[in-house]
Design a protein that fits this description.
single chain, 249 residues, alpha/beta, 10 strands, ABC-type polar-amino-acid transporter, amino-acid transport
Length: 249
């Protein structure tokens, strides 16, 4: 899906550079995600994928360049970051659930503190999203009593409970046992089919091919190749992309 004439991209990145000390991790990234688009970012470890994703909601501070989220420049020091972040759901490799809280409490707490929702409304929203990820029957369970795949689905439900306009996924299945990956990917597929804008750093090539609107291959802090996922995976043009895909497909 492409942006209609005059429509602002959901995420628009221009000449983004990121240094950690003397190490330049992102070397002038130009990149955009359109509204309702699913963009999958692939590449070897250390290529800058996760750093790029973390710059999009300023979990990492860009060294230079511009990041626009729904037309708002989040690299501008005047921008209210919390307000912009409230539109962006983030799901990490690790689930980051509060271990001393039940599933339901994990979903309610941020709604109460950040969204200022009353308890009844927050619980209603939480239950609706637990149902969406197939865990309505586990609201009273604690994270330690859930499988990794269930914990990740709770983390997705928690992000959705904040009513985001877009979702960022940082290798959401990489910490899971292989047999648990499918349930998480199914939830992500459902979100995509509902029109959620998504940027997904992933090693799951089947998901990228089936669900992605655009595939981006990164290496060494630059975007080497991007295009339609089926085309890039079947017929990569760049030698570095060919080498990488020959090892992972």
């Amino acid at each position: 899906m492409s942006t209609a004439a005059g429509q602002v991209p959901a995420i628009d990145i221009k000449d983004l550079h990121k240094y950690f000390g003397d190490n330049e991790v992102l070397k002038g990234i130009d990149f955009h995600v359109d509204d309702s688009q699913v963009v999958c970012v692939i590449g070897p470890s250390g290529s800058g994928k996760s750093t790029l994703l973390r710059c999009v909601n300023r979990l990492e501070e860009p060294t230079s360049g511009q990041i626009m989220v729904e037309g708002i420049d989040i690299t501008d020091p005047e921008t209210d970051l919390d307000q912009v972040r409230s539109r962006i759901g983030m799901v990490f490799q690790q689930f980051n659930l509060f271990p001393h809280m039940s599933v339901l409490q994990n979903l309610v707490i941020a709604q109460r503190h950040v969204k200022r929702r009353g308890k009844d409304e927050a619980v209603q929203v939480a239950r609706r999203n637990l149902e969406k990820v197939g865990l309505a029957d586990r609201e009273g369970a604690y994270p330690a009593h859930l499988s990794g795949g269930q914990q990740q689905r709770v983390a997705i439900a928690r992000a959705l409970s904040m009513d985001p306009d877009m979702m960022l996924f940082d290798e959401p299945t990489s910490a899971l046992d292989p047999e648990l990956v499918g349930d998480v990917l199914e939830v992500m597929k459902d979100l995509a089919s509902e029109g959620m804008t998504m940027m997904v750093v992933t090693h799951e090539m089947g998901f990228a091919r089936e669900v992605g609107d655009k595939l981006v291959f990164m290496d060494g802090g630059v975007i080497v190749e991007e295009g339609d996922p089926a085309e890039v995976l079947a017929n990569p043009q760049h030698r570095r992309t060919q080498s990488f895909l020959s090892k992972v497909l």
